[in-house]
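Model the whole thing, not chain by chain.
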Amino acid sequence: MENDTYPKIPANTINRYKHQATYDADFIHSVVNNTSVLHVSFVPDPSTALPIVLPMIGQLGLYLGNETIDEGAPSVYLHGYVSSRLMRLADEAVKRGEEGLPLCVAATKVDGFVLSLTPNSHNYNYRSAVLQGYATIVEDVGEKLWAMQLVTNSVVPDRYDNTRVPPDNAEMQSTRILKMKIKTASGKVREGVPEDERKDTKREDILDTVWTGVIPVYEKFGDPVPGPYNRVKKIPDHIGDFVKEQNKAREEYCTAATKKPAPLKRKKAGEDL
Amino acid sequence: MENDTYPKIPANTINRYKHQATYDADFIHSVVNNTSVLHVSFVPDPSTALPIVLPMIGQLGLYLGNETIDEGAPSVYLHGYVSSRLMRLADEAVKRGEEGLPLCVAATKVDGFVLSLTPNSHNYNYRSAVLQGYATIVEDVGEKLWAMQLVTNSVVPDRYDNTRVPPDNAEMQSTRILKMKIKTASGKVREGVPEDERKDTKREDILDTVWTGVIPVYEKFGDPVPGPYNRVKKIPDHIGDFVKEQNKAREEYCTAATKKPAPLKRKKAGEDL
C-alpha cells in the first residue's frame, strides 16, 4: 500500500463504471469494518475452479502487540463459522510452502434503491469493497486474543470488556481466527439522484407518468430485547448509545445520498468521487 | 431437486452447527429472493484458485415462456455489473463444451446481534443460503426480457410495468443477464435468545453484571425521496405500499426471532428447525 491507496493491478482493476471505482484505503477499510457480515470465498477443490462463499464476521486490523510481527499494513481477521474444511485448506497451503489459502472477502452496504424512468437506468446507491489475499490460521496466542477482542468489539463497541473475559483454555482452543493478508483491494460507490438518458428525459408522456427518486435503505437496529436469564435491568450504555448513534448516522447517510448529484453528471463536471 | 429439498452431497453438506442447517428449497429460495444484494463468486484464472466476489442483483425463477426450455427447476438470474471479464469467462466455458462458468451465489440476512455472557457465545440471528452451479449468458430474447422483468420487480414489485418499457434495441443489446443452473444449495438459520454454557450461567457474579439479550437488526426503507426531474406528485402505491409492508414485516420477523427458544435447547428437545 502506497499513499493510502491500493495498487491498481490487472486483478483488481475495475473496467466497468470506472467513475464509481476507488482504490482508497480509508474507504475500503471503512466499508469492511462497518459491514455486519462479510462474504468470504475460496476454492475447496482447485481441480474444479468452483468456489464456495461463506458468511463470516470480520474486521480489518493491524496487530502491533508482538515485536516479531511488523507488517505495516492491516490484515482482515475473520471469525465465525471457520469450518474444519477451511482450516485444513489453510494449513495444507502453508505446508506446501504457499502464503496461505487464496481468499476473497467482499463487503457491501446497500444505501438506496434508485428508481428511474426505465428499468435499464435503475440502480442502487451502495458502497462495496472486494479484497483478495492469502489466509492462514492465527496461532500466536497474543494475536489471537487481540483478534477475538477486535471482532467482538466490531459487533458492539466495548462489548468485550463488558462480558466474562478472558476466554478460558477450552475457549482459546476452540476459537479459530482466520487472517487474510491483503494482496489487492478495490471499492465502489454509487450515491445520488436517479440518472436517465436524454431519450427519456425529453419525453413529456414518460415524465408525467413515471415516479423517479430514491428509496433510502439502511440496516436498522431495534430496541435491545433482554434474554431469559438476563438480570441487568438497565440496558448498558455501551449497547444503548451504540444503537441510538448508529441508527441516527445510518439514516442520515442514506438520506443524504438520495440528494447528491448523479455520478455521471459529477464526472462530466470533472469532480472526483 | 427431490421432495423440495436439495440433495445433500459432500460439496454442500454442512458439518459445523448441523442443527442450524437446512436443505429445504423454499427456505433457500426465500432467502435468495428477499436479499437485496447477492454475493457472486467465480475464479477469473483457474491456475491461481483465487476467487473474486462481485455484488449483484438477482432472483430465482423458472422460465416457462419457451417450449424448447423445460428445466423443471428454477435458476438464479443475475443482473448488475456483469463485467466483460465475467461474460468472456462464461462464453469460453461454453465453447470448451462445459456447462458454463463455475459460480457460487450467496445470500445472507442479518436478523439480530445475540449478546451473551462470554464473547465465545456471541452469535447472530441470521438466515443464509449458498448455491453453486454453472453460469451462462442468456441469449434467448424472450427469456432475457422475462428475466429483466423478474429482476426489476425483485427490487420493487410491479416496478417494471410502471416504467418506460419495453427496452429498446440498444438497451436489449447492452443488458446482460447471467443465468446459473443450480447444482447444490444449502441454507442456515439461527434464531432465538442467547445461549450460554452452564459454567457461566451458574455464576451469580456474571449474571449480575453482564447484560444478555438480542439487538434486532433489519434492512429498513426510509421515505422515498423524489428526484430532480420527478413530476409525479403522489408516491405511487406500488412504491408506498411496498415500503410500508416490508418495514412492518421485517421488523416483526427480527423482533419475533429475539424471543424464540435457543437453537441448541430446541434441538435437545427434539424439535426441528
